[in-house]
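Design job #97: recover the sequence.
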């Protein structure tokens, strides 16, 4: 390649990076998506600037796109229904995305729901593990004390796990591995039930890698069905089959309360109050991450971020509460709002 071509290519690259984009680009979690959409619409009306473009890619998919680099052909913000993982953070840094601000939006519960006309479910974490894990103890009546007791999941109906559960086939529609909801399902619900078996809890201390594999792996024999990042499709299928369960965020359950109902977990119904006070066990934090290198290059980023962390937005009386968001504590909101406005760089896993 000639020197002239190299210089031309370099100038084109520099221009592309420095050139301002007319709209903010946001990717990530399907759970945070409805909250971010409402903020984006409010921001557009208040400022007259173009409404941000938001794409529901899943938490993992969004972070992957976000961490590709700093050019304006990459997203400015990614939403996540879990915290960024160490390996993702390292990938960001490897690709030059080294100035990131983390914002805790609030909290959300994971609903295990079915049609309003279907049976009522009251599930323990142990029962969720026995229904959804790929391998389970062969003899659950004695606690499955030995590793040799692990077998491919034999349960096909809920009442085989507990005679008090509905006598219907285990069929659960859920998110793909790229989803933060899937991460929370595996880490909170399935692992939470897995470690109720003493030998599994002991394994965690001796062989953490094997423990994680056994306590996080979801069965693939047709009883758990991945639905992609499409919660609306799950709702449609639940309405058409009253015995099927679906997994999605509390906010989405709220939006479809005329069609579906949430199961109790450990005797606790999924409600705003129970998620806020911690009695509903399957809940998780919601975040967004800002690429600070894009501030000043993409119009409206500072204004959009300020709108999101305003007390009238994500506070206890904010408009996102009406959409199902569970606010974080006042101290946490103040801390993350300051971080967001000041573009505080995330110093994670250091």
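Job complete. Output follows.
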């Amino acid at each position: 390649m000639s020197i002239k071509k190299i210089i031309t290519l370099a100038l084109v690259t520099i221009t592309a990076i420095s050139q301002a984009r007319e709209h903010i680009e946001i990717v990530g979690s399907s759970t945070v998506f409805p909250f971010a959409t409402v903020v984006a619409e409010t921001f557009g009306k208040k400022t007259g600037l173009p409404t941000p473009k938001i794409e529901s890619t899943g938490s993992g998919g969004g972070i992957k796109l976000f961490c590709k680099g700093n050019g304006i052909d990459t997203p400015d913000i990614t939403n996540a229904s879990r915290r960024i993982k160490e390996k993702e953070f390292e990938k960001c840094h490897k690709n030059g995305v080294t100035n990131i601000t983390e914002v805790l939006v609030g909290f959300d519960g994971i609903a295990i729901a079915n049609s309003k006309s279907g049976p009522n479910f009251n599930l323990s974490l142990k029962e969720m593990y026995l229904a959804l894990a790929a391998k389970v103890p062969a003899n659950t009546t004695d606690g499955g004390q030995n590793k040799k007791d692990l077998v491919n999941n034999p349960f096909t109906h809920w009442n085989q796990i507990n005679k008090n559960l509905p006598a219907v086939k285990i069929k659960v529609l859920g998110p793909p591995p790229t989803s933060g909801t899937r991460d929370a399902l595996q880490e909170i619900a399935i692992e939470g039930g897995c470690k109720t078996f003493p030998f599994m809890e002991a394994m965690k201390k001796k062989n953490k890698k094997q423990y994680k594999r056994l306590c996080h792996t979801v069965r693939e024999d047709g009883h758990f069905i991945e639905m992609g990042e499409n919660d609306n499709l799950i709702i449609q299928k639940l309405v058409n089959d009253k015995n099927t369960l679906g997994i999605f965020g509390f906010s989405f359950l709220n939006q479809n309360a005329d069609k579906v109902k949430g199961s109790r977990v450990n005797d606790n119904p999924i409600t705003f109050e129970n998620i806020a006070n911690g009695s509903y066990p399957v809940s998780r934090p919601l975040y967004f991450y800002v690429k600070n290198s894009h501030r000043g290059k993409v119009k409206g980023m500072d204004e959009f971020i300020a709108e999101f962390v305003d007390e009238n937005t994500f506070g206890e009386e904010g408009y996102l509460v009406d959409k199902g968001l569970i606010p974080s504590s006042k101290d946490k909101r103040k801390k993350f709002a300051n971080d967001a406005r000041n573009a505080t760089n995330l110093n994670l896993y250091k």
